[in-house]
Amino acid sequence: MNRALRLLRRRLVSSIPVLLIVIVGSFFLLELAPGDAADAYLLSIGGGDPALVQALRQSYGLEGSALSRLWLYLTSLVRLDLGWSVIFNRPISGLILERLPNTLWLMGSAVALSFTVGSALGIVAGSKPGSWRDRMLSTGSLALYAVPSFWLGLVLIVVFSVQLRWFPTAGIETIASGRHGLARARDIAWHLALPVAALGLIYLALFLRMMRTGMAEAWRQDYALAARARGLGHRRIAVFHIARNALLPLVTMLGLQAASMLGGSVVIESVFAIPGFGRLAQEAVAGRDAPLLTGIILVSAVLVILVNLAVDMAYALLDPRVGANEVAA
Amino acid sequence: MNTISLSRRTLIRGSALLLASTALPPVAFGQSGGRLVVAADSEPRNLNPAIVASNGVFFIASKVIEPLAEASFDGEGGLAPRLAIAWEGSDDGLSATFKLREGVKWHDGQPFTSADVAFSALQVWKPLQNLGRLVFANLEAVDTPDDHTAVFRFARPTPFQLVRNALPVVSSVVAKHIYEGEADIAASTANLVGTGPFRFAEHRPGEYYRLERNPDYWGEGEPKLDEIIFRVLPDRAAAAGALEAGEIQLAAFSQVPLTDLDRISKVPGIEVYSKGYEALTYQLAVEINHRRAELANVKVRQAIAHAIDRDFVVRTIFLGYAETATGIVPKNAPEFYNGDVPAYPFDVDKANALLDEAGYPRQDGGTRFRLRLLPAPYFTETRQFGDYLRQALAAVGIDATVVNNDAAAHQKAVYTDHEFDLAVAPTVFRGDPAISTTILVRSGTPAGVPFSNQGGYENKDIDALIDKAGETVDTKQRTELYKQLQVLVAQDLPIINVADWGFITVASSQVKNVSNNPRWAVSNWADTELES
After folding, report:
1. Of A193-202, A251-260, B442-451, which gets the smallest average pLDDT?
2. Which residue ranges does UniProt annotate as crossing the membrane (chain A) (predicted)?
3. B232 CA: distance to closest CA in chain A (Å)
4. Do B319 and B461 belong together in one domain?
């Protein structure tokens, strides 16, 4: 346990320069993109006269150089102030707090879905590599993986919302329903079913394939032979000996997938009209709202760092070999 | 085994749901009332229509805040009274008198008076509003002899024809008592308070806007609806799905894509309307950078105009929901439209001949010259036309490279940096050429202003004509000048107009009185009904 805690401290300290690089990098990336917040806004209202253009640029604080704006941003960040969103005319921290839970629910459920179903199917496939069951699952999951998420989302809408009418087509909850507590949670779960499926099913293949490959390899190990020699049943060996060892790389994968799902949620949130983090990011880019986008990327980076930290910790607890060298050094 | 039990369960669940759905009562009873759920594709940054006169804002805010007059199919001069009941301009163009409606109350109960109109005009429309700044540039004072008369005084003659045509767009009246004393009205976060048929109730960012019935509305028996919900649906394909599933009842501004219309029009209980956008005509135009030597040659511009098959564009890109254009004024602005102008029918041979004449023969590869083509990204149709134009130009030996940008980058490239040769723009005709049309051809607009002449075009005759029309008070003379302007523009082609289009509204057949005025989607919907 002490080992895990020291690992935690080390990782937290080393993440500070990572965050700084992320902030400066994203700030300048948006700076390099042609057009600024005033350009984006002018187009959305259908134009204006030169004096209006000037006034807008001034009120958005776009007059100074990029470096002076970055310095202003960093100094306010030190005071834990994420700044003011130009496109929403609101404090950024409030905006992010409002949108983040929706995305966390979406991502959390999708990761849980793809991890549990993916690894379970991976066990089925890997318990007898090369069997018809294995081939079917492997091919099917690969086909799903090849499907773009927005398309899968639209197909799910057409089948389950438009034709069967089991689920709503869009939104995070029923509009102005006045529901509270458990009823509201159920309502949100009902709305999230399709987007979670669209996001989760696509990443399922990775876990399935990884589990299957891990198991296929483990079958060739000496301990598998030893277990068989002891006369254990096939199913018992598959689940308790083979699958358990093949599970470790999946935990690593879990951390990596959390980051890429954050990207995937941008698309899914637009298709299903979920007011989440990903859509906020898209709006920030389209509106050239540099402080907002930097805030979003900053919070995302912190999220990813935390998830990976949790994965490392879990790994350290699961496998006594991990982290021993790092802490000793 | 597993798969069979799963399908049985889903089958049972499905039939249970089907049974349950027949037991559900219909959404609305009787002739009036009910909740209308409408698709919205964006959430405007500033929802105050007195400050931001744009369709995205009007779509939601026009139900809350009303203008002095609204566009009308059958009203006198194409207008129907709203907060004003009569209007008249003086012969010298130095004043305009509005008689205001009596007995109107703001949503907070305060009476609506001429002081509100004076405040809106002088403190909001003239200094702050994107279009009002132009129309009311010479507004000096607003006299209020009594509570229901407002007399606008202009420092220089301002054609009343312009003021009248602009009324639906520039004259949204806000309450003086709400904004008086605010240091920065444009940055105000006060909720919308208007006189309209609906009150602003709630905005859940990223989810919806909710408007509720104003029981004290001045219109007798109006509004008919209890509630309007504008549901934020950023994905167009998903909006069509929500309509089919009955989760929304109306999608305006072609939020259901044209390609889906054929299918969705066959769905029982869904109607498709192409009317109701006559006063907000969008124009598909090719913007030209006259700084390029080749494009500064009028023969080259004429060749490009001949190379475009306008009928094909209307048929294939707009699926018939558009009209071919002859110039900078669309056909459905009959007050100003002049069809008697030089025309450029589709003729590849003529285009080739003109390019040869201009001194740009085909090189070895068959290419005359290369250029950059920047289609505006805001509409599917502008992007598709960009692809078409590239092919049409290839047919006459001009090799165009399509450069795709997002909105902000397009604005910077075309209207600020002039990093383009040809651009495809969706310009808008707003009822009078002086509002947003002449700026497309007149010289002298500094860089950075979108939807203006940023192609470096300068023609003294055109500039003089526009300036003269700007100060001509007599309606007949002024109209005549704009008819002449269309001839000059069609001759010299500073910009090439290809097609004029309106949008499509798709609605459940329960929704009544849809598309009954030329700005329907952005009007107040006081008479819109939901039938059960």
Report:
1. A251-260
2. 12-30, 104-125, 145-167, 188-208, 254-278, 290-311
3. 7
4. yes
Judge if B491 and B436 occupy the same domain: yes
Task: Give A267-282 pLDDT, tens digit per residue.
Answer: 899 889 898 888 898 8
Of the residues A133, A151, A162, A268, the best mutation for testing chain B's interface (the one with the most B CB atoms within 10 Å of its CB) is: A162
What's the CATH number where B54 sits?
3.40.190.10
Residue B126 has a pLDDT of 94
Q: What pLDDT does residue B147 have?
A: 96
Whether B189 maps to a domain, the answer reads: no
Question: How far is the alpha carbon of B246 from chain A, nearest alpha carbon, in Å?
Answer: 8
B452 and B309, same structural domain? yes
Distances (CA, A) of B185 to A152, B173, B175: 46, 14, 12
Mean pLDDT, residues B105-112? 96
Q: How near does any CA of chain B get to the CA of A170, in Å? A: 7
Place of tokens 């002739």: B31
Q: What is the mean pLDDT of chain B?
A: 90
Q: Residue B66 in contact with residue B82, Cβ under 8 Å?
A: yes
Whether residue A262 has pLDDT greater than 70: yes
In a domain, B188, yes or no: no
Contact B54 A45 (CB under 8 A): yes
B318 and B446 part of one domain: yes
Does the pLDDT at position B26 exceed 80?
no
Task: Classify domain A92-286 at the CATH topology level.
Answer: MetI-like fold (1.10.3720)
Looking at chain A from residue 225 to 264, which residues have their Cβ under 8 Å from any Cβ of chain B?
A: none
Question: Could you tell me if A195 lies within 8 Å of chain B, comparing CB atoms?
Answer: no
Looking at residue B107, what is its pLDDT?
Answer: 96
Q: Which of B186, B207, B450 sits opposite A172 (nearest CB)?
A: B207
Distances (CA, A) of B416 to B280, B373, B400, B409: 26, 16, 21, 10
B51 within domain boundaries:
yes
Q: What is the pLDDT of residues A202-222, one digit of tens each?
A: 888 888 888 888 888 888 888
Q: Whose CA is closest to B256, among B57, B54, B507, B513?
A: B507
Please tell me if residue A209 touches chain B, with a CB cutoff of 8 Å. no
If one counts the domains in chain B, the total is 3
- Give the one of B13, B53, B450 whose C-beta lies nearest to A43's C-beta: B450
Percent of chain A whose predicted confidence (pLDDT) is above 70: 96
pTM equals 0.85
Contacts B410 to A, Cβ<8 Å = 35, 43
Residues of chain B neighbouring A288 (CB-CB closer than 8 A): 408
Q: Considering CB atoms only, which of A53, A175, A273 is closest to B229?
A: A175
Q: How far apart are CA B329 and CA B431, in angstroms?
A: 10
In this structure, the answer to whether residues B382 and B497 fall within a common structural domain is yes
Instruction: Report d(CA B62, CA B257) in Å as an integer.
Output: 24
Residue B135's domain is classified under what CATH number? Answer: 3.90.76.10
Find chain A residues with C-beta within 8 A of B52's C-beta.
45
Helices and strands of chain A, counted as H and E runs: 15, 2
In this prediction, residues B348-364 reach a mean pLDDT of 94
Give the model's pLDDT for residue A326.
53
Return the residue of A nearest to B446 by Cα. A50
Residue A117, number of CB atoms within 10 A of its CB = 16
Distance CA B96, CA B135 (A): 13
Q: A34 CB near a chain B CB, below 8 Å?
A: yes
In a domain, B53, yes or no: yes
Q: Is A32 on the interface with B (CB under 8 A)?
A: no
Whether the Cβ atoms of residue B424 and residue B376 lie closer than 8 Å to each other? yes
Q: Which domain holds residue B171?
A: 69-179
Residue A311: pLDDT band (50, 70, 90) is confident
User: In this predicted complex, what is the ipTM?
Assistant: 0.80
Query: What are the CA-CA distances from residue A172 to residues A191, B7, B229 (Å)?
Result: 6, 28, 15
A contacts of B445 (beta carbons < 8 Å)? 50
